[in-house]
Design a protein that fits this description.
- The chain has one domain (11-183).
- Helices cover 68% and strands 0% of the residues.
- The protein has helices spanning 11-23, 31-56, 62-76, 85-111, 119-131, 135-150, 157-162, 167-183.
- The termini are far apart.
Amino acid sequence: MSEPPGAYYTEERWQNWIDRIDEEDIDPEDEDSARLLLNLQDDTAIAVAKIITAYDDGHLEEDEAVDELADVRDIVLAEVTLDDEEKLMLVDGVQTSLVCVFYAAEEYIAGGVAEDGTIEEYVRAAADAEAEEDLDAALGYCAQAGTRIIDGQELSMELAEDLEFGLVAEWVNGLDSLQTAMSDPEVVEEDEEGE
């Protein structure tokens, strides 16, 4: 029983978020702006979590699940057009955080849970790899940490706070959204106003 195309995520859904960001005054220091960006990220992570859950529950075959992930990834990681440079950078940051979410989901579906280390060990290895400018290895370690998060283990936010600002910190931020989505895959309402 496969879902209709776009059952997990649609281009229109992503574009609605981008339009909202385009229309609003965005200040990352402002709580409402920060929440809007986080909701954009969490909304994608929830779509990924739903695909993983459908796969785990036997509703999607491995190749179907990988195809669904690829569809969502193509929508979310496509180049965004915004006139405001700062907003573009903020959306780019969200996209960067989500790269690792997709890798972790693909790795989990293709290879299962990484067994060689804890989440903390993988994240520390990723930070070391980033320090040595081996970004492929860093992403690989973060994705392995992600498979353990999908498996129900917990990413400590203290660990995330210890990281130097950089790609690993952004990827771990994405994994935090994935963790939230796996534990509570409720849809973030696009029109939810944080009143």
